[in-house]
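Entry 14. Structure prediction run on the chain below.
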Amino acid sequence: MAADRERPDVHMTGGRGYTLERNYAASARLNLQFYLWKASLKFNIHPSIPSPGQNARIADVATGTAIWLLEVAQELPNVKLDGFDIDLTQAPPKEWLPPNTRLRYWNILDGTPDDLLSKYDIVHVRLIGLIVENSNPRPIIRNLVKILKPGGYLQWDDLNLPDTHVKTVDESLQAPALQELRKMIYSRGRNDWPLQLDVTLNEEGFQDARLYHFKGSLELAKANNEHNLLFFEEFASKLASAGNTDEASQLNQLIQAGYKEQLEGAALWMPRVVCVARKAA
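Output returned:
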């Protein structure tokens, strides 16, 4: 591909807000993504967070398909669960939700509604990098802390993109397309901030913030790579709809070449991180 300055990256759609699709295929990808994360983490709520008592309240911000909430509802049927997003079309209708689960519209980039202040024992967010502006999560953090009770816990799940690399079954195997996709998702270092979340959260008034690293297993490398290709397909579609047709065409070519490399035994490997922090009592 051409020089770095011409490579499409995950900030090219511009503007504020979510820059992926919201159709049925996108919802299916998000649900696949959840189960791949669950297979890697082995938990929904990090074990360092004390088990919530009866009638505790948990919020899932940017809930998407609400699949995380649905799983937690099975684990904790006596806990009250609220999911928030700016678009709830990917989530089940309210008639199909568990009795302890509710969904509500809220844009985390906007102000915090008064009725949510200091309401939740646990707040969970996952993979909201596409709405983090200028590589600065602090405005989002300042809204999240407002909805936590004193002493409540924040769990933030994200990707370790600086350590993302290409795995191959043999060192001699070359995977130039997947390497280009790796550079694209890295976005010239603009997605490094998750690795500083513990420091950032402590600076924003949280306590005991800790970052946990998860590498995953080789057995799921192929499944994870297929999910990654689906992600890039969605992003190519949004690039095209935003008028970046040349970049979208380049990306689609990379996706097809990356799939051929996968068939030969290569996969884009993205480690995961989970940051847990407690709001001051």
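Confidence is low (pLDDT under 50) at residues 1-5, 12-16.
Filed with the rest of this week's runs.
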